[in-house]
Amino acid sequence: MRILLVEDDALLADGLARALGQSGYLVDVAGDGKTADTWLENETYDLAILDLGLPGLDGADVLQRLRARRQRVPVLILSAREALEERVRVLDLGADDYLVKPVALAELEARVRALIRRAQGAPDPAIRLGRLTLDTVGKRAWLDGEALDLTAREWAALEFLAQRVNRIVNKDQIMQALYSWEDEITPNAVEKFISRLRTKLEPAGIVIRTVRGLGYYLEKPHKADNAQV
Ligand code: CA
């Protein structure tokens, strides 16, 4: 899951990015409105956390431009402004949630999870695919009730594919989901993740198909596999 954090207070941004990173999110930090606007237009995010008081383009302007482009990425406003009319105004501009600073990290993370779940049309935080179960809150996977040993990136790739069962995703989409700006990406990194995931999943009948020239998809397990749960 990739999050854009828009916050001009460098210390706060750093602390939040670190905490969210430890929870398994990939976080890009934008320190001003113009950068946020450009990234939102050109990158794929699962959520944006947006401050209102920003240099250059104001947070409300960023939000307005985002919604004017008909982009649906969920937006959580995190602002020191607590006036009722301000909260109403940005919610009406298309924000999905509003938290007033200072915020408890546990609450911020719970709201982040809820917004992402809702955006993906999956109110249940668990994904069940045949003998495979993914806990999107705890970020763990089980095969037949046995915990799967996955690295953070393998987990992210699996979650990305599992949320799009039977839908082809291309390498670019996977790379965008797995890497933030700070990472060096090699072209065959995705292939390596997929290959390692296959090794771990295929004994349980969970299959990741390659569609030549297009990408990959996780195949919906057959009924017979479901019966073994
Ligand atoms: Ca600010």
Number of helical regions: 9
Q: What count of domains describes the coordinates? A: 2
Would you identify the CATH architecture of the largest domain?
Answer: 3-Layer(aba) Sandwich
Q: SS-based structural class?
A: alpha/beta
Briefly, what CATH class of the largest domain? Answer: Alpha Beta
Strand content: 15-25%
Summarize the helix and strand pattern as letters: EHEHEHEHEHEEEEHHHEEH
Distance between the termini: 27 Å
Radius of gyration: 19 Å
CATH topology of the largest domain: Rossmann fold
Largest sheet: 5 strands, parallel
Low-pLDDT stretches are 225-229
Helix proportion: 40-55%
Mean pLDDT: 89
Bound compounds, each kind once, are: calcium ion
Shape: elongated
The fourth-level CATH homologous superfamily of the largest domain is Response regulator
Report on this model:
It contains 9 helices and 11 strands. By secondary structure, it is α/β, with parallel strands linked by helices. The protein has 2 domains: 2-119, Response regulator (Rossmann fold, 3-Layer(aba) Sandwich), CATH 3.40.50; 126-226, Arc Repressor Mutant, subunit A, CATH 1.10.10. Strands 2-1-3-4-5 form a 5-stranded parallel sheet, sandwiched between helices. Helix 2 packs parallel to helix 3 and helix 6 (152-162) crosses helix 8 (189-201). The longest helix is centred in the middle third of the chain and has 15 residues, at 105-119. The model is unreliable at 225-229 (pLDDT under 50). Calcium ion binds at residues 8-9, 51, 53-54.
